[in-house]
User: What shape does this take?
Amino acid sequence: MRYFWLFVVCLLPPSAANITELVGMFGQLQSPNYPEGYPSDADVTWNITVPTGYRIQLYFMHFDLEPSYLCEYDFVKVTSGDMLETFCGRESTDTEKIPGQDSVLSSDNTMTVLFKTDFSNEERFTGFEAHYAAIDIDECVETLDESLACDHFCHNYIGGFYCSCRFSYILHSDNRTCKVECSDNVFTERSGVVTSPDYPNPYPKSSDCLYRIELEDGFVITLDFADLFDLEDHPDVLCPYDSLKIKAGMKEFGPFCGDESPGRIMTNSSSVQVLFHADDSGDNHGWKFAFTSLGNPCPVVQPPLNGKVEPILEQYSFKDQVQIRCNTGFKFVKGGDEVEAYQIECLKSGTWSSGIPTCKVIDCGTPRLLEDGFITFHSKDNLTLFGSQIDYSCHALFYQMEPELNSTYTCMENSFWVNDELGTDLPTCHPVCGKPRIRRSSIQPKIAQGRVVPKGSSPWIAMLSRNGIPFCGGSLIGKEWIVTAAHCLHLPYDPDKSELSSSVLINITSFKIILGRQKTLRKEETEQEYHTRNIITHPNYNGSTFEYDIALLELPSKVKMMDYVMPICLPENSTSTLQTGDMVIVSGWGKQFLHSIPETLMEIEIPVVDHKQCKNVYAQLGRQVTDDMICAGLKQGGSDACQGDSGGPMVALDQKANRWFLQGTVSWGDGCGEDNRYGVYSDVTKSLQWIENITKIKNV
Ligand code: 4AZ
Assistant: This one.
């Protein structure tokens, strides 16, 4: 449709209009009357216009005009921009030029073709026929105007071109230059370096950059420009193209341009704005500056006595921080708390945030007391300060330390008394067991039914007393436990009837435990009297068979160890059982020959009897000797425990250790001291685990 219209325009007779407008992408031009001779005095103009981005190529297929010197008669004149070509004649001479095979190119998207003839055409020259077509301009190759060229990349397309930019650049709204986004640069560090984009390579065009250095009030910023400074300038006008301006508070520096570095600028402000403008041309290298800041100086910090300061500087200024530490063994005291280190800061006013505290020597305070022990200070005046040393000891004779160690404790930096092995834990003072301070004399009178126990030679024996009369015995183990017979603590217990016990426990307040007593009925100065806090009978105790006839009594407080009150050792382990014939000592306030009550504590020394033999003897009587029982006594009778001795100790001396161990508790027997009858005892080794679990006792 469009072509058709163009065609119509081309065929308009030249006489009708001397000027023809041609706007199509291609078209045809002919001299009037072509191919007949052209008329004289012709003056025809074709204005050809194609879209921008195209140029016009004009080609003459036929050219036949009257020749004349410098084409003064008839001619075709083609103009486009500055370009002008005049054609005439039939062939090219010195003064005439025909287009021939060459096509004529417009310099832009317009071309004017003027055909002019003089008053005659005698030889009937046929004129010309020409075609034109719009052809693309490669703007990326042929830049018509240097100032319109792409800054970075150029891309041609038919009828036009477009520009693009390198990475990190953006195309300016002029669609040609490449700028950078550089308006939001904020620096908050106390020092740094700022440069124009791509420095020292040429900075981007068409850019307006803003750099801000924002420090806290109290700092002053100094800028030091590098020597390589290069901004486009002008010989007469001050920085009309590219410029660098600096605003600092109320002050302004610049504009700077050219190649002379501004050098050092003391801004005297804590806030600086750097504005950089680059226009759309030029290839200059830009600028670079380092910024530093200084605050108000603070006075030099003197370290406290027994302390140090870090870091040590010649000068301190605003925001500088200083750590103050005390030497080892010293601490700051702040609000009652001990503080390791102290930090102070230089304020904008030029003073420190707080004064220098004093270092106080660490005081570990009064060391913890050791139960049944005491403390010896190494220093004469009982110092408890850093480095002071103390020794813990247990009260000699009756207690021994566990673990056995170098019991020196030192007051350490952490304010604790510390031992090399135990750290801050304390050792324990265990009562010495099985080592009576008062020994039996070697010449003991041997009494048929027993012998008097020298006072203090069985310091572990406990009397269970009801209304001032002993009804059972017991043995002190550890500091607060008595081992006795379970049947002693069950109702009914009638020593006269020797009845087996029920499962009902006696009232806890109905009896007393007396330690340090030798006499049966008379009070003594050495004795200690206790109530029972708790009765614990063996879980396997059987009141009919007297199996596991063993119980523990917990005392309400720890006993005071003395010559007459000391514990007996528990057997080392459950396999250290007695052998037949081993001699054991049994003591108690139980009945004697003819049922008399002894005046003092009595003991017998008897051998352990073969278990089988004892079992057989009692089997005949219909009673059972079980594995948790030990028998002891003499075949011929005589030395035996009796009513009232129950619960009392059967002990054996370990010759090697020179210690006495609790092997059994008096339990039962058929009569007392009769021949072919033996006393039956509850075997402590069989209940050892149970005892240790409850009492947590360890032998020392
Ligand atoms: C008792 O009734 C008792 N001969 C203790 C021991 C013996 C007999 C009776 C052994 O406490």
